[in-house]
Each structure stands twice: as structure tokens, then as C-alpha cells.
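Here is one chain, start to finish.
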Amino acid sequence: MLAARLHWKKGVREFVSAAEAIKRQKIDARFVLVGDPDPNNPTSVPESMLEKWHNDGVIEWWGRRTEMAKVLSQATIICLPSTYREGVPKVLIEAASCCRPIVTTDIAGCRDIVQDGENGILVPPAILRRWSRRSASYWAIAACRNKWANAGGKLLLNGFQRSMSSRRHRQLTSNWFRTARH
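Its structure:
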């Protein structure tokens, strides 16, 4: 699952390419995009493209959702192949809080949540072939998925949370973790 603003820099193209590559390998997997395009933003993925991918069976497009703990709990893996330079992506905090393993780009912000091999995989930016290959290998290793999922919540609560500056943010994150586990 990729849940984000549906802009090219958030890695939508890479996610869809990985979906196509993994489906060619006959790996039984679903790929879900959560979010809406922004027609007023030039970097937004056109709605017609999202509909085509959805209608062709490459991905499922769920549109915008508000209850992210419930949405993320439906995913086996959370992906964010972003090249967009921002702070720590909220969806990765939410994914770790929901104890979901993560495949994301090895860039600032993303690597603050994911420790490669501990709670997910960090992929060098803009290396599509490697993204697809690492995503496929990740799907095939169920034991690692479980280990990494459990590690994500622990890392968030034990490590990342201590470095957060906002007390309210720590409270919200803690609530996410409790809600997602039940």
C-alpha cells in the first residue's frame, strides 16, 4: 500500500512499476494507492492515469481515506518510494505505529523511521530496478515481514518517540499504536 498525496515525487510511478514487475513474476499480491490527485498541482498524477491503472488491474485505487489506522491495518506492507524532500513522512509514523513493515526510499525523513533490515527496507532513490527487486524479495519472506512489523512499533515507541519535540505528537503516536494493535 502507498498512502500519500498522489504526486509523482511521492513515488507513484515507482510503486506502479514495482506492481507490474511483481505481477509479471506471478507473485500473488495486491497493490493499493490511497489518496487523491490534486489537479491544480503540476506534479500531481492525473486522475485518468489512476483510473487506467485501476481498470487494468495493476493497482487498486481507494481514493482519499480519513481513518488511516483502519486503512493501514488492511495492508501487509506500507511503501513510500518518495524522492520528495520533506520532514518525517506522517504515513511512515502511522505505519510503524500500526506495526506494519515498510519499504521506503533511503532519504532523510524516511530513514528516521526505517532501520534497514530491522523494521523494513531502505531503497536508494530513483533506482527503479532495485526497488522492484527488493520489493519482490520482501514479499517472498513472510518471517521477515512479521519480524519487521513488530520491530516497527517497538522502534517508534522506544527510539524515535524520545527524539520527538512535541508532547502532543508523542501522545497521538502512542494512541495510534494501541488502536492499531487491537
